[in-house]
Amino acid sequence: MTKRHISRVADLLNPAAVLLPAANVIMQLSLPGVGYGVLESPVDSGNVYKHPVKRARTTGTYLAAATVGTDADRELIRTAVDTAHRQVRSSPSSPVSYNAFDPRLQLWVAACLYRYFVDQHEYLHGPLDDAAAAAIYRDAKRLGTTLQVGEDMWPPDRAAFDE
User: Fold this and answer.
1) Using CA atoms, how far apart are residues 86 and 24, in angstroms rounded to an integer?
2) Which of 91, 125, 110 has its CA nearest to residue 155?
């Protein structure tokens, strides 16, 4: 088998990736601000319980734009996501305070996505070499910076990320 050159998050995509996201979703939702944001979201069109196929499609579109899209693609998806996120914020009766524009919550989701891509690849194909792992990590920053995560919020390297 020929070994592929791996340097981007998109290089980790494989058919199994669409079948194995449950652990990633659980990890994302485990942060209370993210979990309650999803649970209490008034955005019915993106509700995973009411429109699971649409939710999967829009998430896939976001991931594609963030990982392999152009700057224009990322701007387009940011505008679309921002429209939905504008409505997602805690109410006085919410058990935790949250706002979908909170870059710390978005950083958590981006970090979970990064771990998901790496974990599913390594489970199927074995560990990434150091050069590929470093390149993937740098590329994964766009999973957050496509939205409101500032460039300086993404930890500078994998060691800092793991802390």
Assistant:
1) 24
2) 110
